[in-house]
């Protein structure tokens, strides 16, 4: 297994069914739009890093928000994604529910 990226899911992520990918974590994943294998709860899925334009910092500071679709998160869940150790292994998603 390779490096690991961890964070807590927000209420917005839980409501909207996605996990934000912070800008500093983008290099951890394949380029945006490129599918990659993700092992989630024992099931292998295809995932992609996606984005949407945003002006949450004001119209003079437009930017992108990056995310991976993942329904079923709860606010406060600790989410960890481990990068594969080789090109044939999937990324591995682990969720520790805080409920």
Structure characterization notes:
The protein is mostly beta strands and 99 residues long. The chain has one domain: At1g16640 B3 domain (Beta Barrel). The chain is 6% helix and 42% strand. It is built from 1 helix and 8 strands, in the order E-H-E-E-E-E-E-E-E. The strands form 2 sheets. The chain has a 5-stranded mixed beta sheet with strand order 1-7-8-3-4, with no helix packed on it. Strands 2-6-5 form a 3-stranded antiparallel beta sheet. The radius of gyration is 14 Å and the shape is globular. The chain starts with a strand and ends with a strand. The relative contact order is 0.31.
SSE layout and pairing:
Layout lengths: L3 E5 L2 H6 L1 E4 L14 E5 L2 E5 L2 E5 L8 E7 L8 E5 L8 E6 L3
Parallel strand pairs: 3-8
Antiparallel strand pairs: 1-7, 2-6, 3-4, 5-6, 7-8
